[in-house]
Amino acid sequence: MFVYxxxxxxxxxxxxxxxxxxxxxxxxxxxxxxxxHSKQVDAARRAAERAALAAxxxxxxxxxxxxxxxxxxxxxxxxxxxxxxxxxxxxRFQILDQLLSATLAIDDFVDLESLRAxxxxxxxPREDLRVPIPAPAPIPDPPLPVKREPVAVxxxxxxxxxxxxxxxxxxRQYAHDxxxxxxxxxxxxxxxxxxxxxxxxxxxxxxxxxxQATARYQTESVERERLVTEQNESLDQLIAGLAYGTVDxxxxxVGIVLANSxxxxxxxxxxxxxxxxxxxxxxxRVVMPGPDAVPTVKAxxxxxxxxxxxxxxxxxxxxxxxxxxAVHNIALRSIHEVFEADRRRLVLSISLELGTETVSPAxxxxxxxxxxxxxxxxxxxxxxxxxxxxxxxxxxHLGASVSKNPHGLVPAVAGGVRRAR
Length: 421
Prior knowledge:
This protein is of the alpha+beta class. It has helices at 15-34, 39-57, 60-97, 99-104, 159-244, 247-260, 316-341, 378-382, 391-397; strands at residues 270-276, 281-288, 297-303, 308-313, 349-359, 366-377, 401-402. The chain has a five-stranded mixed sheet. Strands 3-4 form a two-stranded antiparallel ribbon. Strand 3 (297-303) and strand 4 form a beta hairpin. The chain is elongated, with a radius of gyration of 41 Å. It starts with 14 loop residues before the first helix and ends in a 19-residue tail after the last strand.
């Protein structure tokens, strides 16, 4: 009987599965970013830029030679760019062709204890508020005024009057200085009080801001601890449920395992699973991209005369065969990952359906096209040596119903798959 896992059987990826999936995606993106530009291409580009700059600055005598060298360096940079694009295209083909073998080299078991969370608190953001405001320097007493000596009298005439005038000027200046000193002395207590009050207000404001920032930080820390405790309690429930083989726990664990199996972002694959405890059978639905997701460019060629980098397309047969291999590989990979990760042997058989979502050319509406349907027992599957099989032949051996033309979105024939017994 042909099995279709409809929307009612679809199950959203669980919390821990999503954590695993996002972590794997982040790692994948980091690796892709590291490979963005090879050292070879960067070196060739810098050499071309230096050669062009040297040619522009050269004398007429050297210009032609340097222009030839700059042109050669430019061609080498473009050739390196074409080589890098070809390497990227080749890598994508290898990824698709090795979807099954890639998972055989790793253990798909997920130790749930590795998902236990620990609260990581960021540094306190306002360390500056913990430093007391320095006390201001004390306002000093104003210096006592000093009576200056009169200006010495010069000249032969009017010396007495001049001396009297000089003495009077000294007395006036002293009286003025003394008046200012007295005023400053009288104002000193008020100035010192105002200074002390301003310092106290600033220090109070600092302490109030510190208390507010500390309270906010402690509240956020408590919330982080609460979320971690809640997450770990959920993990404890999952571990306990898995020990008893509960439906939710088995489905959650399978979701974690398959979320851990990350495909390229340009070729996403999703899984939904439903576990039937009475038969210990897992119904697994796999949705993969359509044929358009398969890269069609196998290399890039640089033409020096036109200074163009042009793609070299794979043949239609190569593209069709590659998509068909991906279909077969993903089907076997998904089954293998579940059985290998399930060390408790809670799942005794898997009923898998793999297909793609597309737009029907007849109706213009979204539709689902099943490409593989297979049911297999654990012991039957574990007897296989997946490192040496031809996936299409393996699916035939397992009695699978397989599309005759996956690239053409020809559905697998209903009724062709035998049930696991």
